[in-house]
Amino acid sequence: MTVHISNISARETKKFFGLDSKLDRGIRLAHVGEYDGNGIGLDGSGADYFAYGPSATSLWRTMRPIIAGASPARGSYVVMTYGDEADPLVKNTRCKLD
Asked: Domain total for the chain?
C-alpha cells in the first residue's frame, strides 16, 4: 500500500516526518502488516508512505485515522494493492483522500 500526501510546505515537513512512528506503531499493534517507511520530497512536492501486509483493507483501516489526523492536502490519495506486486495480474485500487 502506498499513501501519497500532496503539497507539503516546508513548515509542514516535521509534521509529516512525525507520521512514521505513528504509522509503524499502529500497524504493529493491530498486527496487520509492516510499515516500510517514507519518501518525503523536501521540495514540497509531497510524501509517500509505504506499508505491506496480507490485507490492504485491514492496513488502510489502521492507517486511515492516522493519515486523516495530519490533514492531508487536496490531491492526496491511497493506492491499495491486492496481491503480490510482482504478479502481472495484481490489482491496484486508487482512492482520493479528499
From this structure: 1
